[in-house]
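Students often ask what a holo structure prediction actually looks like on paper. The answer is less mysterious than it sounds. You provide the chain, you provide the ligand, and the output is a string of discrete structure tokens encoding the 3D arrangement of the protein together with guanosine-5'-triphosphate.
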Amino acid sequence: MNETIFALASAPGRAGVAVYRISGPKAEQTLQILSRSPTPTPRSAVRATIYDTEKGDQIDNGIAIWFPGPKSFTGEDVVELHLHGGAAICRRMLELLSSQLLLRLAEPGEFTRRAVLAGKIDLTAAEGMIDLIDAETEAQRRQALRQSQGALGKIYDGWRKILLSSLAHVEAFIDFPDEDLSIEEERIWAPIAKLAEEISEHLNDNGRGERLREGLRISILGPPNAGKSSLLNWLVKRDAAIVSERAGTTRDVIEVYFDLAGYPVVFSDTAGIRTEASGIESLGIAKSFDRARTSDLKIIMIAADETEAFSAVERLIDKNTIVVINKTDLGETNIIDIRKNCLSIEAVIFEISIVEGAGLESLLEGIAVAVDKKINAGNSPAISRARHREALNECIEALNRSQIEVLLELRVEDLRVAMRALGRITGTVDIEEILDSVFHDFCIGK
Ligand SMILES: Nc1nc2c(ncn2[C@@H]2O[C@H](COP(=O)(O)OP(=O)(O)OP(=O)(O)O)[C@@H](O)[C@H]2O)c(=O)[nH]1
Ligand SMILES: [Mg+2]
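The corresponding structure tokens follow.
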């Protein structure tokens, strides 16, 4: 039998309300002892006075909810106590639950782990719950909520069922060989080919789900003195980087995490790129190039009065680039040439003056549109973790092998490998082995 576990489920510290969770076979009895009352109606909030089981006086009064298993989060008997959120109450409650009532403090994520083991939710839904707690922007919250409600799990499980059905047909085919090979093709291999196509499409999503969890990387690049740091400060609405009229002010990459219209982004301000640099400056420039390579989106900026510096950064422009010409207040020089070059590479171009505040709002909108295009979750759930991507890659490799192999036994083995890979994502197989790594990220009480 499982041990009964308890934890403070709300954040520790001074608060209006603190929530304690108890799960396991001793949950009901614990509630009876603490409240000196019979078990309340299931799933209803009832007023409860909580007594000190050692000293006999009251600790606090609040609300108790009784969730008899299996209709509970963990599938076991669960009690939730909503008491006042004070340090003294919390200390005494935790002391009593462990030393007097002999329950065990839950490990991080243990409640959710029990929910998975009881088959209440699958692993992808559990991961969705971690993400929901960690979500900092609207788009992250939406993706996490969908995943916690099983949107991804449903897809992977549906695919597993297709594999399972093909495997069942193979067994039948081996036991009762049929002369008609077209039946084998239709029942076994045609669905597999279609499945392989569907999985490749799902994999081919430019990592938008992962980007949404981790933040889209946007770097601000350009020649020295173009106004890159000024733009960063304007975008994030604070003085994150030093701005000065001296060329070569920024030497290192400055990263700022930001919520851009509901999307998480990480802006990187970089050292100005020019060809004749040495020493520390050239080390900084090497980092700028590095950032240009690893960014999801690049903002390449030049100053209207120094357009000749454009040649140093021109080759960084591609379709993931927004070109910004700053300092239009100083008058144009040969902007037209730059415009022509950018058009040929499909890069979007904006003209702004940071000191005059001109063109900034439309630039911001342009960045938001580009970000939206890259990670808009749309309606189809996206792969949100490297763990899923690895398993899906393994699955697709096995499926592809199964289609070219000649020996039926080998083809069938490939299907089994593919099915196990899918099962690992939702936790249908090898579960204990991967549970630890998943629940590692959880907080205690969840
Ligand atoms: N006239 C004018 N000056 C600007 C504008 N934007 C920025 N500046 C000035 O240009 C100078 C350089 O700005 P920074 O933001 O430090 O430029 P940077 O690209 O980060 O420069 P490095 O870090 O040296 O590569 C500062 O003196 C800014 O005040 C603008 O729109 N018009
Ligand atoms: Mg700078």
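Residues 424 and 430 are 6 Å apart (CA to CA).
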